[in-house]
Amino acid sequence: MLHEETSGAVIDAAMKVHSILGPGLMESAYEACLAHELRSRGLNVETQVPLPVVYELVRIDAGYRIDMMVAGVIIVEVKAVNEIAPIHKAQLISYLKLSGVRVGLLLNFNVVHLRDGISRLVV
């Protein structure tokens, strides 16, 4: 599956989750429901994927976790915040660089219309 098709599938699934649950829940609820929805559509989804930092050729577990890795080609970071701050986008960009994955989606479920809470980043 291509990046564009996978991104589209994730966004479609996220829209369904948001239309059923609405805003106001914790990130963990949206993450679990989105993972379930994506798996029910036949996509490979890993959640809370450890992401080490490589520093001077040493692999260091610094406690970072990717919310979701979808089909091995898209990182999805789930938020439930009043608004996306620059640090949220910086976090996703760092995760993309550290993992070698090129495409990421930042999904903020704490919005009235999910379309207003979607950011797609490419490195």
From TrEMBL:
InterPro entries in the cross-refs: GxxExxY
Pfam families per the UniProt record, alphabetical: PDDEXK_3
Designated name of the protein: GxxExxY protein
Species of the source: Paludisphaera borealis
